[in-house]
Design a protein that fits this description.
Helix 8 packs parallel to helix 10 and helix 13 packs parallel to helix 17. This protein is an alpha/beta fold. The chain is globular and about 60 Å long. The strands form 2 sheets. It has a 6-stranded parallel β-sheet, with helices on both faces. The chain has a two-stranded parallel ribbon with strand order 7-8. Helices cover 58% and strands 11% of the residues.
């Protein structure tokens, strides 16, 4: 059963199917579709989740088949997620996927979710994909073409209660926004989220959007991220003081730090699931200098440390919004200093050179 991406929400409201296949070459939209399916599944009692990433010719498909037929001691229902970044399951994977698909209709204790990149026509007419389509729901995520990107941006702004002014000025604002992100949906998504952090719900003028997108200080925030990951404590201190003096929004600094922590955790989880580090970094769109920094710290950064950092980031999110947390400063900037130096300390402790260490 084929389903268009805009139909997914209505489909999920009517009930879940035991097998879903999501494919396309736009990572943000594939991730959001998968998130929607997972959220619906959790609401229906699918509390356990296993992730299998098909990497290399020697992938063990027997583990996937076993996972689909087993139940956790602690959960009645489970999600079995199969990720095939190459789009090619291989010689053993083709019959395994057919077996999973054919056994899915009567299995109400397991929801199988298959994630794939964009597929060519020959692949879509193959036996294994045909079985997934025949016995489950297949969802092709179409890219957002450049001419409709301004409309897409307007729809995303509306989700967070914001809109551009009417008339020609509003269209000019959306066109400017689309030009700046150059068709990169993930970049557009991040800029839209930033507008939600910086401005209240309601109407946005061109100057507000231009200021947010072109704000030179935001590059300093990105440089702060690089300094933290490099373990450069002295530089981190100077940059935090400078950002505060320039009047940078606390929520934006927190967002940048917490996004790094979440990205580190996602890549670490992907590595634990058997994904090679370079592949995991590409999937999370970690490139350039940050890619090299991630490569340095991730192999020796523990899961426990990342879990603790995620918890700290959650607490600081509340503090910069006016809440209090035991053991944490009540001032937002002081809390941001503590979070930044905690992450910086974890990163600097991994450096083999004493010069990489800093005092927080």
């Amino acid at each position: 059963m084929q389903l268009a991406a805009p139909q997914l929400t209505q489909h999920l409201q009517k009930g879940l199917r035991p097998l879903y296949t999501v494919y396309g070459d736009e990572p943000l939209l594939v991730q959001e579709a998968a998130d929607a399916i997972r959220a619906a599944a959790r609401g229906q009692g699918y509390t356990e989740r296993t992730v299998h990433t098909v990497a290399g010719a020697h992938f063990d498909w027997s583990e996937v088949l076993a996972a689909g037929g087993s139940l956790s001691l602690f959960a009645d229902k489970q999600i079995v997620e199969i990720r095939i970044p190459s789009g090619k399951p291989g010689k053993e994977g083709s019959p395994a996927l057919q077996q999973l698909a054919e056994g899915s209709p009567g299995n109400d204790s397991t929801l199988t979710l298959v994630l794939l990149p964009k597929l060519d026509k020959q692949t879509r007419t193959g036996a294994w994909f045909g079985a997934l389509d025949a016995h489950g729901v297949t969802l092709q995520v179409e890219p957002v073409e450049r001419p409709v990107l301004p409309q897409w941006i307007a729809q995303r702004l509306a989700r967070q209660g914001q809109r551009v002014v009417g008339g020609d000025e509003g269209q000019r604002t959306l066109q400017f926004f689309a030009d700046r992100v150059e068709g990169n949906l993930l970049a557009a998504h991040q800029e839209i989220q930033k507008l939600g952090l910086l401005y209240p719900e309601g109407e946005l003028g061109f100057e507000q959007v231009e200021s947010a997108v072109l704000n030179v200080a935001r590059y300093d925030v990105f440089k702060l991220s690089e300094a933290v990951l490099a373990g450069q404590a002295g530089r981190v201190q100077r940059m935090l003081d400078g950002l505060k003096a320039e009047g940078e929004a606390e929520v934006l600094v927190h967002y940048t730090l917490s996004e790094d922590i979440r990205a580190l955790k996602r890549v670490k989880d992907a590595m634990a699931a058997g994904r090679p580090l370079p592949m995991a970094l590409r999937e999370q769109r970690v490139w350039g200098l940050k890619e090299r920094l991630f490569e340095r710290v991730l192999p020796r950064l523990t899961t426990t440390a990342l879990d603790n950092l995620l918890h700290s980031a959650h607490l600081v999110d509340g503090i910069v919004k006016g809440l209090k947390a035991p053991g944490w400063p009540t001032d937002g900037w002081q809390a941001l200093h503590k979070l930044a130096f905690t992450l910086c300390s974890e990163c600097s402790s991994l450096s083999p050179s004493p010069s990489g260490r800093g005092q927080g």
